[in-house]
Give the backbone structure.
Amino acid sequence: MTAASESGSAGAGASPVTPSQTVGPFFGYALPYEAGPEVVPGWRPDAIRVRGRVLDGAGEPVPDALLEIWQADETGEIPRRPGGLARAGHDFSGFGRCGTDPDGGFWFTTVKPGPIGAAAPYIAVLVFARGLLKHVFTRLYFPEDAAAHAADPLLGDVPDERRATLIAEREGERRYRFDIHLQGERETVFLGF
């Protein structure tokens, strides 16, 4: 390591560091795609539906956000095979993408993930939205896994009064609601990486 790199100054020939830029608004070309919210087809017997809204600090919908989900399959296996965009009705990539509608709404059809290690089953959620310098990360946990929540390492670090912002609400058989509040009194817990 050189003295220049230790002090944080750029050495000869080094590219300068540029600041982050606000993400969005998003163009409707290439980022959202027709089957993006369908991680699995809805006809699968183990398919679940997750829906929700992205809301700003005033509780107003964010109509131009983009969400990605990343998850394990129903056995807790993290997919490592090709087929993310062309699922051909049977493949499971563990990835989905959905833009929000004018009411800030989003939806995904997927499977409930199995646990990975000591973690309770969860879906990783990334939110890209106007006003954010970088996308934010959160997790969606399932309400029926309360016993596993107690042993989950990440949930164990979240204060009790904020933990509910990470747990979806059951809306019916295999249906969940997960609203994401970017700021404000009901702000969703976001993770730093």
Summary: Strands lie at 47-55, 66-71, 95-99, 105-111, 122-128, 136-141, 169-172, 175-177, 180-181. Residues 21-181 form a domain with the Protocatechuate 3,4-Dioxygenase, subunit A fold (CATH 2.60.130.10). The first strand starts at residue 47 and ends at 55.
